[in-house]
């Protein structure tokens, strides 16, 4: 069986040995220096001023929305656009925090929202914020999406949990919006077992995210910022300052264990994404080009493609179902991320009255699947994947 995830870490043995040694000698395992070191390293690698390290990508999504609410940048009841094809915990924070979720359909050839789809949606629904997902390492014209957002005063936030390392028009995905979220879950590009982050260049947002991450208190702010916030709220006593809660927060802190692993794994990140890119080229090009049973996916507009799974969108449900059978016990497969969000029970439980036309997201939901792209795939496994996905295609291209 060719598994989606082969190991917990890149260079698993060596990483686990170092981890055992760290745990047995560390004085502190709750949030501390290792986490802060990882934040500096990741922010530098991503090319952002700040990284706020959290315990998952889902927490990162909830934290950024809460931070924007706390700062008054968005308010309850605002329309917020999001990619109809995404992961559930991209859309869920919008429901949980009282916003009005507006799904935006994707383009079939890039699997992502385009500036055109955004503009079509804006004709019907004005939005205050766009929570854009960069799906599976791909993107559409995100530079134009940003322009539309700038013109219309829409806050652009990227959910980059699936596209760490992709470069479009010379810029890393995750650097187009005001802030972007990341996941370091074991199946994603880089693993801290569980983990996530928000990156931003905004001092104000970074400060609020640190409050949101830990109880709404000021414990992890710089001394200068602590003085400022304590003066603002007239907290003069060092006794009460320890337990003063300034705004709405959670406990989304990662541990030193996650931080330590992050510091080890980030040293391999360029190697990991290069291997995944090479796998993608070896697998996807023959699969996409040898048969016309699948919709083509465009990626030649992307400078560097970085994904952790390879999507295949069949031209009919029958072809997809046959493929699912053919993969049984041989290749581990999944639906394309969370599929069309409006088809998910949590969505129609809460949004009953509105009808959205997410034709392409629905098609991907009904006719798509994805398979592994992990850095440990062997040449033999790659050949096996290609064989199964191009098998016996009576309508093969020459
Ligand atoms: C687009 C997207 N956003 C958010 C998440 C949530 O990340 P996590 O699993 O770290 O909570 C995922 C997870 O797969 C995802 O694909």
Outline the structure in words.
The protein has about 400 residues and is α/β, with parallel strands linked by helices. It folds into 2 domains: about 10-270, 3-Layer(aba) Sandwich (Aspartate Aminotransferase, domain 2); about 270-390, Aspartate Aminotransferase, domain 1 (Alpha-Beta Complex). About 40% of the residues lie in helices and about 15% in strands. The two termini are about 30 Å apart.
Order of helices and strands: HHEHEHEHEHEEEEEHHHHHEHEHHEH
* Main CATH class of the largest domain: Alpha Beta
The structure class reads: alpha/beta
Number of helices: 15
Rg over alpha carbons: 22 Å
Ions and ligands:
pyridoxal-5'-phosphate
Total strand count, please? 12
Q: What is the name of the CATH architecture of the largest domain?
A: 3-Layer(aba) Sandwich
Beta-strand content estimate: 5-15%
Main beta-sheet annotation: 7 strands, mixed
* Average residue-wise pLDDT: 96
Neighbour order of strands in the largest sheet: 1-9-8-5-4-2-3
Total domains, how many? 2
CATH topology of the largest domain: Aspartate Aminotransferase, domain 2
Assembly state of the chains shown: single chain
Distance between the termini: 30 Å
CATH superfamily of the largest domain: Type I PLP-dependent aspartate aminotransferase-like (Major domain)
Instruction: State the low-pLDDT regions, or none.
Output: 394-398
Global geometry: globular
Helical content stands at 40-55%
Which features characterize this protein?
alpha/beta; 12 strands; globular; 398 residues; binds pyridoxal-5'-phosphate; single chain; Aspartate Aminotransferase, domain 2; 2 domains; Aspartate Aminotransferase, domain 1
């Amino acid at each position: 069986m060719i598994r989606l995830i082969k190991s917990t870490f890149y260079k698993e043995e060596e990483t686990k040995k170092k981890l055992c040694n760290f745990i047995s000698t560390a004085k502190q395992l709750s949030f501390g220096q290792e986490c802060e070191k990882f934040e500096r390293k990741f922010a530098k690698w991503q090319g952002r001023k700040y990284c706020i390290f959290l315990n998952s990508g889902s927490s990162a999504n909830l934290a950024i929305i809460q931070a924007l609410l706390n700062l008054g940048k968005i308010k309850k009841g605002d329309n917020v656009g999001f990619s109809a094809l995404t992961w559930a915990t991209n859309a869920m924070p919008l429901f949980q925090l009282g916003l009005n979720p507006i799904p935006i359909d994707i383009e079939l050839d890039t699997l992502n929202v385009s500036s055109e789809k955004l503009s079509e949606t804006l004709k019907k629904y004005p939005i205050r914020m766009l929570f854009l997902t960069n799906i599976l390492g791909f993107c559409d014209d995100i530079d134009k999406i940003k322009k539309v957002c700038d013109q219309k005063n829409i806050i652009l936030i990227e959910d980059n949990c699936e596209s760490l390392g992709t470069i479009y028009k010379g810029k890393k995905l995750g650097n187009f919006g005001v802030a972007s979220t990341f996941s370091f879950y074991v199946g994603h590009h880089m693993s801290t077992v569980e983990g996530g982050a928000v990156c931003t260049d905004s001092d104000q947002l970074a400060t609020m995210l640190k409050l949101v991450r830990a109880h709404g208190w000021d414990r992890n702010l710089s001394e200068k910022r602590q003085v400022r916030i304590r003066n603002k709220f007239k907290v003069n006593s060092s006794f009460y300052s320890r337990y003063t809660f300034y705004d709405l927060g959670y406990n989304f802190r990662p541990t030193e264990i996650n931080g330590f692993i992050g510091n080890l794994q980030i040293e391999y990140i360029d190697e990991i994404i290069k291997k995944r890119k090479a796998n993608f080229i070896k697998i996807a090009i023959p699969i996409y080009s040898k048969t016309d049973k699948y919709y083509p996916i465009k990626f030649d507009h992307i400078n560097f493609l970085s994904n952790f799974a390879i999507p295949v969108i069949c031209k009919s449900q029958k072809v997809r179902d046959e493929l699912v059978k053919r993969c049984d016990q041989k290749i581990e497969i999944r639906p394309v991320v969370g599929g069309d969000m409006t088809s998910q029970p949590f969505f129609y439980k809460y949004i009953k009255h509105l009808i959205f036309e997410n034709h392409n997201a629905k098609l991907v939901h009904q006719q798509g699947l994805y398979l592994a792209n992990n850095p440990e795939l062997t040449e033999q496994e790659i050949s096996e994947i290609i064989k199964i996905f191009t098998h016996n295609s009576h309508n093969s291209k020459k």
